[in-house]
Task: inverse folding
């Protein structure tokens, strides 16, 4: 058990250190009470948190996808094209796949690599089509909205397949009517354009 002292020492001698409790006890006057504290159990440090390695699978695209002329899309500000150098999928750990809540779609463009949340899946034979929001939904002044999504083909374990991704834009009018706008790979498109 440790012994604590309730005293104020104004003068310390050279041979008395604050860490030497036995010296303090010997130096204490007889009328100072010694309070004994209960033993404090030794606490083990918490176990380290295991963060699994991530696996990434990429497809080099180096293409631009453009939509046709659409006055409503132009008025709303839906981009006329998306230029992407590569797309991919990142899954956490060796034994997880695309359905893990931490899995993300990776898109690299002129602004760098972005991680996009997976927003949907569709069965595509043995593989899956993964859907991620490329342009977040934006509300219009009239009460409608618009956004763009990217569609990738992947195996269940997160290996991206060789098919070029699809990009689609969506416009929802205030009445609830929705229009889909397909983006197509432009002829001779490269990221340098």
Result:
């Amino acid at each position: 058990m440790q012994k604590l002292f309730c005293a104020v020492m104004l003068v310390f001698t050279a041979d008395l250190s604050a860490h030497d409790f036995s010296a303090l006890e010997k130096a204490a006057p007889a009328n100072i009470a010694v309070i004994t504290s209960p033993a404090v159990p030794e606490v083990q440090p918490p176990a380290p948190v295991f963060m699994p390695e991530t696996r990434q699978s990429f497809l080099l695209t180096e293409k631009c996808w453009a939509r046709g002329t659409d006055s409503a899309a132009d008025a709303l500000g839906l981009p006329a094209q998306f230029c992407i150098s590569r797309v991919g999928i990142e899954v956490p750990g060796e034994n997880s796949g695309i359905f893990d809540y931490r899995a993300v779609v990776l898109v690299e463009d002129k602004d760098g690599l972005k991680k996009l949340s997976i927003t949907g899946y569709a069965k595509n034979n043995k593989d899956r089509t993964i859907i991620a929001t490329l342009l977040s939904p934006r509300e219009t002044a009239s009460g409608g909205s618009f956004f763009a999504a990217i569609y990738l083909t992947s195996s269940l374990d997160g290996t991206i397949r060789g098919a070029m991704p699809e990009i689609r834009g969506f416009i929802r009018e205030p009445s609830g009517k929705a229009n889909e706008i397909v983006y197509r790979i432009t002829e001779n498109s490269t990221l340098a354009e």
